[in-house]
Design goal:
single chain; mainly alpha; 6 helices; Leucine-rich Repeat Variant; 61% helix
Length: 127
């Protein structure tokens, strides 16, 4: 191996350990970091995690939804008939029940749901 090859090999091996791996976090967008944090919250019955767990019920990732509802059931004892494997439309009523429950618990109002007809109605009424 020539001198340039050794230099490249040395630089890449030296930099390989320079970065610390990310820690599991409920706020992570990476399921490989979010799921371990969800499991820890469930084991510890962490009431502070409930808000994020309810938000995770609307995740695009079915594994995140599965672990979120499992953790919520462990922490609260409730499911509101939520099924992580259902499509978005079928999950919506249970998700809204969770959001209503959370809003009542926190003394706030539930966030508005996305509505295509509202946008179309608004556009039509402005013409």
């Amino acid at each position: 191996m020539n001198r340039t090859g050794w230099l490249i090999l040395l630089c890449t091996s030296a930099c390989g350990g320079c970065f610390a791996p990310e820690k599991p976090s409920l706020s992570s967008n990476d399921p490989s970091l979010k799921i371990p944090a969800i499991r820890t919250s469930a084991k510890q019955r962490d009431e502070k995690a409930v808000h994020q767990l309810v938000a995770d019920l609307d995740s695009d990732d079915p594994a995140v939804r599965f672990y979120a509802i499992t953790a919520l059931r462990e922490i609260t004892g409730k499911t509101f008939d939520y099924r992580y494997y259902q499509d978005e439309i079928r999950r919506r009523p249970a998700l809204e029940r969770w959001q209503d429950w959370l809003a009542q618990r926190e003394g706030t109002t539930r966030p508005a749901t996305k509505s295509v007809t509202t946008t179309a109605t608004t556009a039509t009424s402005q013409q």
